[in-house]
Structure formats: structure tokens, C-alpha cells
Amino acid sequence: MKMEAPLPVELSQSPRLAVMPWTHMLLALAVVAIWGSNFVVIRIALDHLPPLLFATLRFCLVFLPAAFFVKRPAVAWRWLALYGVAIGFGQFGLIYIAVGGKMAPGHISPGLASLVVQAQVFFTIGLALYFSGERIRGFQIAALLLAIAGIGVILAHSDGTTTPFGLLLTLGAAISWAIGNHAAKASGTTDILAFVIWSALFSIPPLLVATLLMEGPTAIVAGLAQANALTWGAVLWQTVANTLFGYVAWGWLLARHPAATVSPVALLVPVFGMGASALLLGEGLPAWKLIAAALVIGGLAINTLWPMASRLPGYPWRRGAVD
What we know:
disordered N terminus, 0% strand
């Protein structure tokens, strides 16, 4: 989930727009590198842990012991509950099942999962338009069509590592992520760290029930017995680096720079994801994957950059020539 501050009326008038200091840019790159390569970490952990058990452990460690030191945010419980179920059970539960490992068959490669889940951007926009009653704009339609074309390329090249079912699971995770984004925005929270920590309280019960019913005590015991230092390192990485550090650092950057400066860096998440998967897991990068990535990332870029460009003086869409 990304916290976004409103864009200034005239970007050219913002003294903070030009560039981030190089130290801040390095921090932003570190965050997106963690978020992208996180899919490789997921795959490593899933070699020993069943998917839903892995998700349960992750959110247990997000909530405890941090809840003893971080005060519950002043938001309604219903938003914490919706976010916790959507992100914990919906987003990560489905992603872990989709990626799989030696303990459970995978349905999509980690690199492609990191790309397809970015469709959450379009689902988030859809929810925002639905609740606000606004109409979809031309550039958003163009961006969505590009992303759909990219997903169509993936579907047309389904193989043993990427199946239609895996694609469906990953899109379900993207929808869940979008629901979580809506819950966070509707809550009005300004303390995203506390919000994430306390929402984990509602991620744990459905995940625990699901792992007991769907994976069973035998698989749970076997997974815990097989877990080694690398496995537990992956669990901690998910908890500390991906969740706690990532959200805090991204929020810190957005508090100091306009979203127009920070948000475009997030376009590199699937680049890091596919690159890390190819480098560390040996995932192939045939031409069709690169074409699919170009289409999806192109759609994301149009959606992210067009509103920023449309606020610059002198452009034709400033005068209504282009939507």
C-alpha cells in the first residue's frame, strides 16, 4: 500500500519537486528493491513452510511484540479489521499459495507474480471511482488497456511455472490489496506503522483457521520441523524489512516530498522482482515475458505520470485539448 499526499496545484511552483537528495533517492530505491526482491524471499521460505502457515507466522511477528510498544491508532476497529483481512488473508495468503514452493505446488513464477500484482493500482482506482462517483478518464482507460494486454500475453504463454489459476490467484491478491488501500484511506489514518501493526491482529485468526483446515496439522508440524535458519530469516525479512521498514521509510519520504516526486520510483518494483527472480532463482526471461512486463509497466507509468505532466504549464491538456 502506498500513502499518497495530494499533488500541488502547480508543480512548477513547488520548491521540493525537482529531485530528492541522493540519500533520499537511495532510501527510495532500497524500499522498492526490498518490495520487488521480496518475491524471491517468499519462494525461499515456501520451500519449507506451507503457504498459509508462512502467512500466519509473518503477521504474528508483525503484531507481536510491536503492539506492546506502538499505540493503537485512533481509527475505527472496522477499518483495521477490513485492512487486516484484505492484506493478510487476501493479498499475502493468495500470493503465497500462487507462488508456492517444495511444500506446495506453485502456480506462477515469483517474477511474474511481482509484475501481475501491480494490477492493484487499477483496482484501487476502480474502487475510488466507484465510491466517489467520478468518471474514469481517458488516460486511465489507455493505461488499463495496456496492462490488460500485458496480462493477456502472460495468459497466452501459460506453462508449467505459470498457469491460468496462478494468474487468477495473483489478480485476487491485487484486488485484496486494493481493498486494503481503500480501508486505509477511509480510516483517515496518518500513522501507517501503527495501522499496519494493529491491523495484523485481524490477519492472524483467518490465516490460522485456514492453515489448520486447508494444510492440516501434519503439514504444519512437518514445515516447522524442516524450517532452517534461512527459512526463519525469510520470515523475519518479510516482517521487518518488507513490512515495518518498507512502510515506515516510504511514509517518511512522502512526508518530505510530494507524491509526484516519490511515487514514480515504485514503477521499479516489478523490475527488481523479475530481475531478482532471474538472477537468484534462474527464472527465464524470454521475449514474451519482457513484452508483458513492458506493457504492464507502461500502463502503470501512464497512470502515474500523466496526472503529473498534466499539471505542468504549457501542455495542451492544460487547455482541455487532451483528457
